[in-house]
Amino acid sequence: MSISLEDVSMLLKIPVTGKVVAVENFARYTDESRSDAIKLVSKLLGVSIEDAEDEVNISKGLTVQKCWLKSRWCLKAGSRNTTYPPVECTARAYLLYLLSCTLFADKSGSRVSIALLKLLEDLADVGNYAGGAAALAYLYRHLGSATRVQVSQIAGYLTLLEGWVYEHFKLGLATPNAKYMDYVHPRVCRWVQKHETVMNIDKVGSIRRTLDGLRPSEVTWDPYVNHRENGVVHAMAFYSGTLKYMDVVEPYHPERITSAFGHVQSISDPPSRPLEAHRGPSALKYSVKYGFQADNCERWRNHLLAPEVRGEKAEFEFLATPTIYLGSSKSLTH
């Protein structure tokens, strides 16, 4: 099983279709990209070139500090600057902070990529980006990185991961949110998020044993069967190709999780092979590169799984995962 675009759409209620979230000229730190970043911060956040340069120097990269960013909207809230609408600067600072704390959270917990600010230049265009697809690509990459033996932290929107676990696995870990209202709040708000800074090693071991011992009947393969609009799976869920966030490209294979869409799962072809792959023991030595065609993602309707590949609709949920598929899957993952 894996997190799908439908999971993102249902849990977060954010767009999974639209423009690709990428800014190519901020992919690497160079003198030119540093200069462009300083000018961008000055222009879009309404600060002087000097202040922007000082902040970029302190952050030591194409980033700004979250504490500095937060001070921007607090400072600008009462500004009477008429040369640049302060409300736009305030909105950009807030959205940049929000994105860095949620969909695109990194391991630092204190810095924000200036590349994201470029996407906020035209506030009216922000809703046209496929933020959900980008967040999934970013989370996929960091889930891969987290498998390395020397990696002890994970980046990405972990609320999405946590919500996905609660939807699909009956582990008794979720705390229901009494204030949740269906069709008003995103489904991820059904639960109260837990904040455990340190987890007891015995508890981790217990959860792992529970997961390994789950039977097919104890997994909710299709949790949205009664919650889809008009009872139809979001067509984008069947898009087959790659997803992109900035310089991160990850394959998306819905044919490997058709049981999550109420179809009978069959044994699919092997996943896409990367162009380059270096999976060392640490995050710094973990590098995977896949090919990407922007048109494929933005014209996703031309790249959907054929009906015969999706498989037949399962009459009952437990029939969506035949024993032969489960055996094949276990041989690859254990």
From TrEMBL:
| InterPro entries in the cross-refs | AminoTfrase-like_pln_mobile, MAIN-like
Q: Name one Pfam family in it.
A: PMD
Which parts of the chain are coiled coil? none
GO biological process annotation, one example:
meristem maintenance
Aminotransferase-like plant mobile domain residues are 1-271
Protein name as catalogued = Aminotransferase-like plant mobile domain-containing protein
